[in-house]
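Researcher: Sequence recovery benchmark, item below. Answer with residues only.
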């Protein structure tokens, strides 16, 4: 349910720095065009693209020709975000777009390489473009926000020297996904699950974000980044917080984010010298042949990590997180494995464990929920079979396309709702969880990344890791059966 942005008295301008880039073309402008077609953009919204490429308004509109409906609102200025002189020109251009009278609201979107965030934010401060005396000013910063705790803190310091925290919207586009938001509705708008949502009834939780793609042309970037920075610090930990958080007192940004931060605080830190007991690094077999990758690279393209949330609700319940490139399926799913019945009345085969209920939450691609339970096989004498209750968005809401995450996030930023954006302390906590694991992986005593074949489910060591805990990775859509 995306509500219309309020019609402001005056002008609203979205300034996209990095407007000739991939994210703008593939995500931002299509999201804006879709919001426009649904009548959800502020009526007076103008879009100003800024990048160094030399183009005029018409040339820039031509690049975005597919989104002709928006074209009259799109403007372009070539400029370097690190140049104060160019930022002055952006200010002049904004003044000409905004005209006189009323309030002039601006949403600055940094769709730039992360190495430019710092100078972009400082430049906005020095050119006094952050001052909000004649309308609001907000800043959207793309991911990744920092490369470790130290750099994230430095970036937060720069951001806070220019903007108030309530003006800063740090993107994790996973939070804009419908199922991720529906997870909150599922947990807190239904009375039947919450009483079970704790250590008394849940055995463990698995969170998987698997990608089929390799690293493409991004070897230089990826080799410095690896899967822990690329996926764990942001998406996986965000999903974990939503599963594990206490009910906030209201569905509003501060209440929600306070509860998420409490979960991150409660996650037991893994000591670097102990990383081998809690995490498995992997690397797909042809990774070192990729261009831009060092032939001796030990960068993990896969990781499986066991985390514990040290609080009353989750004590003793492991959260297994895994993510990797070049895996068999592209999917994001959360599986809640409940405890087995304490005593089994019905006959089991010799090698069979007492079956447990599982709840699978599919975030993508086929968004929905599956709840598994045992049923009696008809006719057969007390034989059981696992059955599933299924809910899938595309079936339940057929004809209603699921909006792209960027639609939700752009609209929320325009509306000033920061619920689905990460706060400075949240980002820093998340880095403080993954930093020691990254450090541990680089120690000479740590396991080198285990190789895995492209199209597999990761290294066999990750399966053994689960086996030693007496568990197995569960398969999407057929929770309860071990991954092949
Ligand atoms: P690109 O490299 O495609 O685009 C970067 C943009 O920045 C270009 O428009 C470039 O244009 C501009 N630029 C570079 N230097 C300057 C400068 N000094 N001043 C002004 N503009 C400059 O990157 P992406 O669009 O892929 O990514 C942008 C951000 O979004 C990154 O932080 C990335 O991590 C994040 N992101 C991207 C996703 C994607 O799907 N692409 C997904 C999730 C996050 P020019 O050379 O003309 O100046």
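Model:
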């Amino acid at each position: 349910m995306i509500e219309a942005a309020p019609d402001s008295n005056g002008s609203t301008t979205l300034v996209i720095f990095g407007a000739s880039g991939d994210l703008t073309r593939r995500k931002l402008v299509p999201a804006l065009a879709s919001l426009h077609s649904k009548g959800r953009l502020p009526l007076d919204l103008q879009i100003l693209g800024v990048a160094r490429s030399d183009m005029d308004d018409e040339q820039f509109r031509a690049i975005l020709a597919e989104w002709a409906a928006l074209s009259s609102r799109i403007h372009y200025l070539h400029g370097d975000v690190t140049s104060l002189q160019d930022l002055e020109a952006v200010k002049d251009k904004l003044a000409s777009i905004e005209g006189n009278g009323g309030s002039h609201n601006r949403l600055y979107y940094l769709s730039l390489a992360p190495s430019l965030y710092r100078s972009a934010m400082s430049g906005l401060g020095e050119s006094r473009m952050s001052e909000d005396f004649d309308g609001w000013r907000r800043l959207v910063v793309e991911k990744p926000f920092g490369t470790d705790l130290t750099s994230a803190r430095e970036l937060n310091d720069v951001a806070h020297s220019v903007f108030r925290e309530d003006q800063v919207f740090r993107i994790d586009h996973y939070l804009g996904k419908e199922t991720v938001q529906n997870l909150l509705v599922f947990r807190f708008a239904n009375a039947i699950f919450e009483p079970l949502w704790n250590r008394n009834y849940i055995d463990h939780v698995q969170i998987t974000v698997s990608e089929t793609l390799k690293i493409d042309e991004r070897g230089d970037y990826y080799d410095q980044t690896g899967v822990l920075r690329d996926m764990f610090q942001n998406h996986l930990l965000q999903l974990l917080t939503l599963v594990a958080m206490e009910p906030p007192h209201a569905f509003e940004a501060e209440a929600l984010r306070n509860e998420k931060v409490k979960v991150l605080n409660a996650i037991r830190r893994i000591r670097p010298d102990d990383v081998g007991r809690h995490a498995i690094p992997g690397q797909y077999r042809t990774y070192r042949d990729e261009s831009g990758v060092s032939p001796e690279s030990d960068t993990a393209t896969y990781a499986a990590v066991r985390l514990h949330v040290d609080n009353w609700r989750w004590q003793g319940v492991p959260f297994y997180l895994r993510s990797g490139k070049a895996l068999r399926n592209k999917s994001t799913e959360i599986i809640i494995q409940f405890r087995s019945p304490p005593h089994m009345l019905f006959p089991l085969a010799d090698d069979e464990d007492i079956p447990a209920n599982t709840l699978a939450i599919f975030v993508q691609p086929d968004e929905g929920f599956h709840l598994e339970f045992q049923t009696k096989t008809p006719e057969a004498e007390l034989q059981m079979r696992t059955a599933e209750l299924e809910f899938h968005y595309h079936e339940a809401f057929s004809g209603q396309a699921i909006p792209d995450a960027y639609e939700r996030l752009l609209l929320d930023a325009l509306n000033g709702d920061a619920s689905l954006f990460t706060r400075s302390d949240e980002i820093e906590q998340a880095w403080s969880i993954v930093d020691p694991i990254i450090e541990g992986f680089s120690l000479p005593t740590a396991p080198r990344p285990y190789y895995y074949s492209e199209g597999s489910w990761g290294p066999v060591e990750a399966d053994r890791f689960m086996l030693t805990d007496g568990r197995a990775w569960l398969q999407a859509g057929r929770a309860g059966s071990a991954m092949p």
